[in-house]
Structures are given as structure tokens and as C-alpha cells.
Design a protein that fits this description.
The protein is 41% helix and 35% strand. The protein is an alpha/beta fold.
Length: 372
């Protein structure tokens, strides 16, 4: 019996240990400073300094694993979402120091940041971006050295790998069995509709990144060869033939051999070009508006206009129109850069002081709300 009791005690001890470690894993302790200018009210400056410290603390916790969310980082959504509501991620904090220096309130907070909640919101942002049609890309940037095309393009590979890492769907042009020839490539770059149509049919993609990569000799000083590499590229929307971005980058490379110097120059140019193309493509994906529909029940027309005005003031909303109203039911059409689920979350966090409002349904591009 005593042995059985001992086993139970040991099991309970390990259970408590696992629970404690699980709770610790969900939170991270951070110490951060906050600052605010003292204007009219010192108490207000104190509150602003605390808010600043909370934001800095969440940003510090976020920095430990933001690299896993490169697409969100490139889209600039961290600033607009995670850091915009930083206090919501802090479960508790202690004001350890506060002082006034040169017209500033300075505070030091020790806080517990809910790491798991941040990760969940980052995952939701990734899904939001990829739901914008998940555009398919083909990348064609032939490499030319000494006036001859290389069978495998280094810049093309570097750019494709980075786009895949950021979550884009990149078609392997080698798997299609079709490789565009130099003449067709030149025509496509010039906007020829027939050549662009051929790319669409053969690669089955929405966008194509077309360009060229080439090197030339600069100097040979005491056996050290210096070469210049240039990568030029355009992002073309194949359905319309519209050029979304057009850019050229030049870098230099030095090495003992011509090929190694060329490779260094092209690698540097390709890496810089990738940064430009990712920014341009991400901006294109996020610029698409979603048309959402809101059904609101149990309200009068005056209250419907209040909801319309409140929605219009939200950062993610571009335009709101009242579509219909009958008895106690109204319909709104909302143009936004975000999904229905995101807008529902944003509305849930808002304070509806005028009248109580709850979201009772989210489906596809429709939200159902009810006044209670």
C-alpha cells in the first residue's frame, strides 16, 4: 500500500512539473523601457510611457522567432496588427522603475508576454495573405556569360528559392518540358500578347518574372579579376499583360578566376533583386480588395449608419456602403484588404459603447451581427 501511495505521489509530482513547464513555455518574461514626452498632464505621460514599454516588450519577444514568418514580415503586417495591439499580449507586468529625465517620463516594466497567442495571430496572418488567390509564379531569368547562355541560371535559382521560402507557389519551369527561347523571351519582355499567351498555356501561372542576367569584365589587377554582374527583371501579370514592376541591379565580384568573379557578382545582384521583387509582389497580393457583406439584425436605420461610420474608421476598411434596410435588418457591403475572419476579430475588440453588438456568424465573405 505504501509503495502504491509513493507511486501516486511521484506521478502527481511529474504531472505538476509538466504543467508548470507547459505554462512557462506559453509565456516569456521580458524587461523593457518605455518613454513619453511630458506635455500637459504628467499622469497621461506616465500611461503613454507604460504603453510604449508594453509595445517594446512585445516587439522584443516577437523578434526571437519572427524569421519563421518571413512573408508576414515582408508584408509589413507586424506593425499593423501584432504591435498595434501589444497590450493584449501581456498577461501581467510590474513597474520596476520610473523617473523623469529632460522632460520625458521613463519607465521600466517586467512583463509576461503570451507567446502562444502571438504565434496563433501570426499563423492567421500567413493564412490571410495566402488566401488572396495564392498566385502561381514562373521565373525565367537566363544567364549569359561570354555571350553564351548558361544551362542553369544562378539568379533564377536564387530568386525562386527565396519566393518559395516566403510562401509563394513557384512553378519549376524545368518540369513543364518547355523552355522559352531567346526570341520569345524578348517578345514577352516587350509585351507581345502572343508570347505572353504562350507562357500562360505552357506554365499555367498567373504571373511571370522575366529578365536577364549577364556579366562583363572590369579589371585584372595583379591576378585578381573584377567582374560586373547585372540582373534585370519584370513582374508581368499574364492575364492582362500589365507590368507590375521593372528593375535592374548591378553588383561587382572579385576573385582569382573569371567564373568565380562572375558568380560572386551575379549572386550579389540576384539577392538585391530578390528583395525588390518580393516587396513588389507582396504589395500586389495585399492590394487586392475583398468585398465582404455584413448582415445586421435587431437594429434601426440610425444604428445601421453608426455601424457604417465605425467600420469606415477602421484601418483595414477602405469603403462601406449600406445596401439595404427593412424593418430591423440591414445589409452593408465592405471593401477591405483583409478577410472576413480578420474583420470579425477587429470588430470584436472594438468597444461598441453606443449599443451592444455581437458577431453571431462568420462564413466565407459574410458576417452576421446582432444587436442585443
Amino acid at each position: 500500500m505504501k509503495q502504491r501511495m509513493a507511486q501516486i505521489v511521484v506521478c502527481l509530482f511529474f504531472l505538476l512539473l509538466c504543467t508548470a513547464s507547459g505554462q512557462a513555455a506559453e509565456h516569456v518574461e521580458v524587461v523593457a523601457q518605455g518613454f513619453a514626452v511630458i506635455q500637459d498632464a504628467p499622469v497621461q505621460a506616465m500611461d503613454e510611457a507604460i504603453e510604449d514599454a508594453l509595445r517594446r516588450g512585445v516587439e522584443q519577444a516577437l523578434g526571437s522567432y519572427i524569421e519563421s514568418y518571413t512573408l508576414v514580415q515582408a508584408a509589413g503586417l507586424v506593425e499593423d496588427t501584432i504591435l498595434a495591439k501589444s497590450s493584449g499580449y501581456v498577461s501581467s507586468y510590474v513597474l520596476e522603475q520610473h523617473s523623469i529625465r529632460d522632460g520625458f517620463v521613463v519607465v521600466v516594466l517586467r512583463m509576461m508576454v503570451q507567446k502562444e497567442r502571438i504565434e496563433n495571430d501570426l499563423d492567421a496572418l500567413v493564412l490571410e495573405i495566402m488566401r488572396r488567390g495564392d498566385p502561381r509564379l514562373a521565373i525565367l531569368i537566363p544567364e549569359m556569360v561570354h555571350g553564351e547562355h548558361r544551362p542553369h541560371s544562378l539568379p533564377e535559382r536564387i530568386i525562386a528559392e527565396q519566393f518559395i521560402q516566403y510562401g509563394f507557389s513557384v512553378v519549376n519551369v524545368g518540369d513543364s518540358g518547355y523552355r522559352v527561347d531567346e526570341r520569345s523571351l524578348s517578345r514577352a519582355l516587350a509585351g507581345d500578347a502572343g508570347s505572353l499567351g504562350q507562357l500562360t498555356r505552357n506554365y499555367n501561372v498567373d504571373f511571370v518574372i522575366l529578365g536577364s542576367a549577364q556579366t562583363r569584365s572590369l579589371a585584372n589587377l595583379h591576378g585578381m579579376i573584377s567582374n560586373q554582374g547585372t540582373v534585370a527583371a519584370k513582374i508581368i501579370h499574364l492575364a492582362t499583360g500589365r507590368v507590375l514592376a521593372d528593375h535592374s541591379v548591378t553588383e561587382t565580384g572579385q576573385h582569382l578566376t573569371f567564373d568565380a568573379a562572375s558568380e560572386m557578382a551575379l549572386q550579389g545582384a540576384a539577392e538585391r533583386m530578390t528583395e525588390f521583387l518580393l516587396d513588389a509582389m507582396t504589395e500586389r497580393v495585399l492590394s487586392e480588395s475583398n468585398q465582404l457583406y455584413l448582415e445586421v439584425h435587431g437594429i434601426n436605420y440610425s444604428e445601421l449608419t453608426i455601424i457604417k461610420d465605425r467600420l469606415q474608421s477602421m484601418r483595414s476598411v477602405r469603403h462601406v456602403v449600406i445596401r439595404s434596410f427593412a424593418e430591423d435588418r440591414g445589409e452593408l457591403e465592405v471593401s477591405t484588404s483583409r478577410t472576413a475572419a480578420y474583420l470579425a476579430g477587429e470588430m470584436s475588440e472594438a468597444s461598441w459603447t453606443e449599443f451592444p453588438l455581437e458577431i453571431v456568424g462568420v462564413s466565407g465573405n459574410t458576417l452576421v451581427l446582432r444587436r442585443f
